[in-house]
Amino acid sequence: MKLPLYLDYSSTTPVDPRVAKLMCDCLTQEGNFGNPASRSHFYGWQAEEAVETARRQVADLVNADPREIVWTSGATESNNLAIKGIAHFYQKKGKHIITSKIEHKAVLDTTRQLEREGFEVTYLDPDTDGLISPAMVQDAMREDTILVSLMHVNNEIGVVTDLAAIGEITRAAKVFFHVDAAQSPGKVAIDLEAMKVDLMSFSAHKVYGPKGIGALYVRRKPRVRLEAQMHGGGHERGMRSGTLPTHQIVGMGAAFAIANEEMAEENQRILALRQRLWDGVSDMEEVYLNGSIDQRVAGNANISFNYVEGESLLMSLRELAVSSGSACTSASLEPSYVLRALGMNDELAHSSIRFSIGRFTTPEDVDQAIAQVRKAVTKLRELSPLWDMYKDGVDLNSVQWAAH
Amino acid sequence: MAYSEQVIDHYENPRNVGKMDEADAQVGTGMVGAPACGDVMRLQIKVSEEGVIEDAKFKTYGCGSAIASSSLVTEWMKGMTIDEAGEIRNSSISEELALPPVKIHCSVLAEDAIKAAIDDYKSKQ
C-alpha cells in the first residue's frame, strides 16, 4: 500500500530517530529503567540524572530555570493544571478569566468547566487576521480578573500572538498570564526571562518527541502557586504527582535540545517550502490564505478553495495527509470554530485545508501536493454549479436558495 | 469516511456533467440546496416532444455522496418519460449507492432536484 504524503505536522510529528534511540535506552533491563524517585540506589540516581538533564534541555530552549519546569502527560494536562490550578488557588482574589474563542479545546473545555463551578469567563474575538491584540486584553480586564490564558501559536492558522506586549499589561494589572505554547518550540523563539509570562504549556509530540509527555513552566520570580490536579507522592514539588517516565522525559529533552540547535536553519528551509506550496496554488482563482501572512509560523498554510466543498476536497486529496480545520474537529466535520471566529462564512470555512510542513518534508513532496491539489480543485470546480454561477458573474449572496 | 464502491465510482467517473441552455423551451432546470448547508445540486433535463427525457446533465457542490446521487439520477433518467422520472424515490438512490444513514439526505436532495427540473419544464409548456 502506498502511504499518503504526510503534510499534517501541526497535528503530530514522527519522533526524530535520534530521539527514539535515546528513549529506547531507558526501557529494558540493560537500560536506564529505574524510578527517578528512588533515592537509595544507583538505578534511581541514574534515572534522576537523565530526568534533570532533560529538564535543563527544556529550560534552555525557553530561557527558564530548570526548577520552573514541571513534567506532565502533555499540553492538555498542562493547560488543565495551569488554568484550574490558578483559578482554584486564587479564587478569593477574583473569579474572572480572560481567554479567546480560538484556543485549543484543552483550554476552552477547561474554562467551560470553571464556568460550571461559578467562574466568569470572557472569550475574546480575534481580528480578521486571527490575532488577539494587547488592547483587546486591556479592554476586557476587570477588578476581579485573575488569569489571562492565550495561545502562542494557533494550531489551525499558525498565527503568532505578541506575548511580550500582552505580558506587560497583565503584569501591570497583577493578573496571571498563562500561554499554551504547544505549537511553538522549534518554530518561534521563546524567552521567558524577557517575557512577562507566568505559566506556559509545552508538548513533546509537536516537536519530534513522543506523545504522552509535556511540561508546564511555572514562574518562580514573581512566585506563582497552583492547586495540584494530580495528587499522590508529591512529585514535581507537589505540583504533579506520579512516577516520572524517564524514557518519555529523555525523549522530550532531546527533542527540545535538537530544536534549540536546528531551529534557525530548519525554519528557513520550511519557510521556503511553504512559499513553494503557496506559489504553486495561489495563481488559481478564488484561493485564500487564512490568517496573517507575516505573523505566522513557517510551516503552516491554511488555505481555502472557494466554490469547492470540503469533504469532497478531502476525498480527492486521499493521497495527502492533511486536515480540514483542526484534528480535534475533523472527526465531526463541523466547519472549524477557529475559522468561523475569524468571521469567515461557513462555505469558505468548510473548503479550507490545513497543510503543515515539517522536518522531513522535501521539495518533491510539495510539488506532488501542488499537483494533486490543482487537479482536485479543477475537477471539483468543473462539477460545481456555484463555480459556474461565479463565472457567469452571479452574486451568490443575492440568490434565493431552495433549501430543503 | 467509508464510501461505497458505487459512490467512489460515480465520484471518479461522474456521468453527464455539464450545462444545458436554460432558456431552451425543451429544457427543465432544477436547482436545490444551499451553500450554507454544504449541498447544492443543479439538474437539467432535455425533453422530447413526446415527453421523453433525451438528455440529462448535472453539476453538484457537495460531498462524494451528493455528487454520486446526482450523477446516478442523470443516468437513470435518460430514456424515461417525465412521469417515470417523477417516480424516482430517494430510497432507490440510497440503496443503489449503499449510502450510510448520515448521507441519506443527499439522495433526498437528488429526488427534490428531479422534481424541480420537471416542474420547471412543465411551467414552460
Can you describe this structure?
The complex is a heterodimer of chains A (404) and B (125). By secondary structure, chain A is α/β, with parallel strands linked by helices. Chain A is built from 13 helices and twelve strands. In chain A, the strands form three sheets. A seven-stranded mixed β-sheet of chain A has the order 2-8-7-6-5-3-4, sandwiched between helices. A three-stranded antiparallel β-sheet of chain A has the order 9-10-12. A two-stranded parallel ribbon of chain A has the order 1-11. Chain A starts with a strand and ends in a 13-residue tail after the last helix. By secondary structure, chain B is of the alpha+beta class. In chain B, 45% of the residues lie in helices and 21% in strands. Chain B has five helices and three strands. Chain B has helices at 5-12, 64-77, 82-86, 90-97, 104-124; strands at 27-34, 39-47, 53-61. In chain B, strands 1-2-3 form a three-stranded antiparallel β-sheet. The longest helix of chain B is centred in the C-terminal third of the chain and has 21 residues, at 104-124. Chain B starts with a helix and ends with a helix. Classes of the chains: A alpha/beta (404), B alpha+beta (125). Chain A binds chain B through residues 307-312, 314-315, 345-347, 350, 382-388, 396, 401-404, and chain B through 1, 3, 11, 14, 17, 19, 31-42, 59-64, 66-67, 108-109, 112, 116.
